[in-house]
Amino acid sequence: MATYETEIHTGGGGWQPDEPLTVSIANRGDVVPVDGAPATGATVTWSSDQGNGSVTFFDDGSRFEGTAQFPGEGPVGYRGTLAN
Q1: Are 45 and 51 a contacting pair, CB within 8 Å?
Q2: Which terminal CB of the chain, N or C, has fewer other CB atoms within 10 Å?
Q3: Is there a contact between 58 and 65 (Cβ–Cβ < 8 Å)?
Q4: Could you say which DSSP state residue 27 is in?
Q5: What percentage of residues in the chain have a pLDDT greater than 90?
Q6: CB < 8 Å & 24+ apart, contacts of 46-51
Q7: Average pLDDT over residues 11-23
Q8: Structural contact between residues 38 and 55, judged by C-beta atoms closer than 8 angstroms
């Protein structure tokens, strides 16, 4: 499990803080280790009535970059850094 401090990038608003994101995938081995972050190059994609997104992890899982779209909003840039 890994928790990230996140930001979204809107067209004219630049990068703005967003809610923390916790990633936990416990199937098919340690995609996201219980005590760590996803490996570099791992990609996580989700879709639900709460929104959708796709992010790729870099620097041993210490950060991610991607896109997200939340209900009633257009797509935005989405990035995060591993919380300590």
Answers
A1: no
A2: C
A3: yes
A4: S
A5: 67
A6: none
A7: 90
A8: no
Per-residue model confidence (pLDDT) at position 31 = 63
Count of the separate structural domains present in the chain = 1
The tokens for 60 are 């041993």
Q: What is the pLDDT of residues 35-75, one digit of tens each?
A: 778 889 989 999 999 999 999 999 999 999 999 999 999 99
Beta-bridge partners for 2: 23
Structure tokens at 21: 């994101």
Q: Which tokens hold the place of 58?
A: 């870099």
Torsion angle (degrees, nearest 10) of CA 84, 58, 26, 35: -30
Beta bridge pairs of residue 56: 43, 65
Buried b (16+ CB within 10 A) or exposed e, 4-20: bbbbbeeeeeeeeebee
Q: What is the CATH number of the domain that holds 66?
A: 2.40.128.450
